[in-house]
Specification:
By secondary structure, this protein is mostly helical. It has one domain. Helices cover 78% and strands 0% of the residues. Helix 1 crosses helix 2 (22-34), helix 1 packs parallel to helix 3 and helix 2 (22-34) packs across helix 3 (36-57). It starts with a helix and ends with a helix.
């Protein structure tokens, strides 16, 4: 990974947490126009971020019935280490 790709990956990550300056945004976008690896990395990072946010916003799972919990615990204890 060259210096420009390192900067682009850092900016792609920063973009998920804060608004990039105009200069930073231009550098990232221009680099992604010419570098397919960074373009794909940026898209994958954005997709992962959206997916994790949606997962976090989903309703928490319902409690497992006691019998199911006990069965899981019993099966875990039976598993060889």
């Amino acid at each position: 990974m060259n210096h420009f790709c390192q900067q682009a990956s850092r900016l792609a990550s920063d973009k998920l947490e804060r608004r990039l300056s105009l200069n930073e945004s231009l550098r990232l976008n221009i680099h992604c126009l010419i570098c397919s690896s960074c373009r794909h990395y940026t898209a994958a990072l954005r997709l992962l971020h959206v997916t994790l946010r949606k997962t976090h916003e989903a309703e928490p799972p319902q409690k497992l019935p006691a019998a199911t919990r006990q069965q899981i615990i019993r099966q875990c204890k039976e598993q060889p280490e």
